[in-house]
Amino acid sequence: MISSILSRGQVGDDDESGSIGRLDGNLLDTLSILPYRAGYEEYDQELIQKRLTKGMLKGVVSTSALELGLDIPHLGTAVLIGVPYSATSLFQRIGRIGRHGKGRVYIIHSGSFLDEVIFRDPLRLLNRPLSESALYLQNPRVQYIHALCLARLGGEHDQMCNMLGKSVDESDFTSPIVWPEGFISLCKSERIGEIPADLQAMKAEAGDDPNHTYPLRDVESQFRVQLKQGPIQEEKGSLSYSQLLREAYPGAVYYYATQSLRVYKIINKSRLVLVRKEKRYTTTPNMIPTQVFPNLTSGNIYEARRHGDLVVFESNIQVRESVVGYKEKRGSKQPESYHYPLNEHRMNIYFDLPRFTRNYFTSGVILTHPSFNNMQEPEINTIAKLLYEAFLMSIPFERQDIDFAVGKFRINRPPIVQDGTRFVAIYDKTYGSLRLSGHVMKEDLMKKVFEQTNEIANLTDYRDNEMEEFHISSGVIGILTDLLQSAQDTGSPISHFFLESQKKDDIDETLREQVIRPGSVGLAIRNDNQEYLVEKVFYNPKSNLNEI
């Protein structure tokens, strides 16, 4: 969106025909205002920084990527769209301005809950907590990424030994450093090629360059965007899987440094997004509600408590995000909708599945209350949104790391969980989890979050539906009041929440359900959890396994 806004009127986009502007190496040298974000090609990033540092640009429109690590002397004015969620981000952004003279920082009300709260009491702007540091080394994907970088043959350990003139034993790995539990054994497994099955796909994706395959802020390998059209083949940066769902899904018009590019094919296995030149149209994804599947089996619950009628627990979860099509706007015309699967003859876009989906495993906090089952869908969605915003205002993590959803339990775990019972989930968006959402389980923070939720809900502008798409009804206010009263109650652990699964001999055969059958959908856990459709199930007498 940043690139889309900046491109208006700069390279021949002055009518609804959306003519294709120039797409060459001189573009970033000629524009006076440029976009900036993480994921650009290194050459493009350096060019933008160089022009900005030398005062050769009138301005730059950036994500948070510019708030750290750059000393740019000529920046005199900053315009922040919305209040940063943590004081740390605010101070970092202010620190970019006026480093060699006077500077000004403007904060524009974006219409968010946080902005409304701060604008009503501006003194709160500078009295908010600093961002929390987040380090969860038990994430197996985090551990394996570091094991790949450090202990693989030819990795950083071997390189350091060579520099020091020490011999390298290819069959072993030792270290005097006290590492997190399990890390040394994982390094040794990597040395001898005996890595767990669920990490083998990561090994294949990493190749000989895990340091660049897996960026610092993500534990999933990046998708490479490649312009491939006729004789042209150029690299156009990289995107995470979650960015793909927002910006570069099949059929999307993706903007890279003001250049408009059509996504015509995604090769999931090789992490490649193929794009071509496109007119300056805009597209938005049609997403179905995110699905959350709490894992209530033994060993997957971190903590469970009851606060009056409110039950709260942190567990491992599966998250499913799906794009089912998109809307495309061309000039002043009404947006047109396109649904998956796409006909390959429509603009030569190739996608033959009903959904473009990301499945991943992480952890989250699940909240359930009897009142949730009697609410209308818009009302419980409103409560989930309010809790999410209050969480980020009370516990200042980055918005991109936390998300929320509404769901229903699909199993029975009496007396706490009943099939069909509604819940609200606040969860980590990082694959494997960083256990960020679990902070709300601290009793003092849970109370603070519900207090903040009620404060937001009672803002009159929002209750009158002037600034948000949903209405905060009196029923919602009443339920939030009940939730706050429950949160103020001293929580009691639920030791019996996870009853061990029934013994096999006690299982009622009538309760069995066939889960692998023609027409069912599965996940290929060794291929990044891609979905597949089961067409046929049959028995192969020459094999020890049934085949699908």
Automatic annotation (TrEMBL):
Protein's name in the database: Helicase C-terminal domain-containing protein
InterPro entries in the cross-refs: Helicase_C-like, P-loop_NTPase
GO molecular function, one term: 3'-5' DNA helicase activity
Pfam families noted in UniProt: Helicase_C (PF00271)
Gene3D superfamilies per record: P-loop containing nucleotide triphosphate hydrolases (3.40.50.300)
Organism: Desulfofundulus thermobenzoicus
Single biological process term from Gene Ontology: interstrand cross-link repair
Top-level taxonomic group: Bacteria
Spans through the membrane: none
Helicase C-terminal domain sequence ranges: 1-141
